[in-house]
Amino acid sequence: MIQEGKLTKINLYDKLNAAFVSLITPEMPELNRIRKQNSYSKEPTLERPFEMPLEYVSIDGVRIRMAKSVIDNKRETIVLLSAFPHSIVAYSPIWDTLKREYNLYTYDLPGFGASETKTEYMSFTFQGDFLKSFLGHFDITAAHLVAPDVGMASALTYVINHKNNIKSMMIGDGPAALPTSEPSIMRKMVRSGFWRGMFVIAGSGALIESAKNLGNVRYVPNKYEISDYKKSHQGKVANSMKWFKKYPEALKHIDRNLKDIHIPTKIFWGEHEAILHKENGVNLNGRMPNSELEIFDNCGHFVYQDDYPRFIRLIRSWVEKHK
Known about the structure:
The protein is built from 12 helices and 8 strands. The protein is α/β, with parallel strands linked by helices. It has a single domain (4-321), classed as Rossmann fold (3-Layer(aba) Sandwich), CATH 3.40.50.1820. Helix 1 (12-23) packs across helix 7 and helix 3 packs across helix 12. The protein is globular.
């Protein structure tokens, strides 16, 4: 999956830039308090990721990295969409357990992770359209979508814009309902051209280190995960920031269509969220007519890592309920 001889590390430049971001982020003292409570250390939670059958495919002229594990057509199918600035490698603990029970597909969204990037990919609409193409390419029908972070915008845009037979969704820690409650780092990426430029200058390593500092309060990524995240986003940060620039306007389209989404939806959110406050999950749950909210206590932004055993249970129970 990831070769040891080709690991890319977080260097001093990355750490200094990430430390500066932490210094100007008012949510950091509370995050550090929770980490101390959790005896958070530098030792990785898992020594290395579990194996995933990573491959590259081209769909409608877009080259993406993905993985799939298919048992038979009698099993339920789950499609996991990547989060930013992680890659699908972050799903390895979930993948290793659920591959025994379900048909699984996952991919790095175009423009994110190890998939190719172009300016035209960096919009909610393109990502929603591409999800339609992905499902069609693999003849996936009646699937369950798991979509945190940027994947959440893709899933919601897809079900709003396209006729579909999605059985259920599990979404969270991402954009959906107005008004949004945005911590300082999200305001910088969304509202400030100056700060988007600073993230571009700092580069992928600082982005990955900052994401770990702001997004994890329990799970400690291992060197293989960190290497994959950093390499996957090298040279792509400038394009990634274009997605955040378009975010406020794109969010309006999702917001005004939430009332028409009747797909059973489990909304998950981290209690100690420093990217998008948990109040966004509460607001979204109140706006969607067929949703349930689950707050992951003692978790940060990346709940699928911070408490991956519980996240596995969430997926399993939700899918079994909506077979």
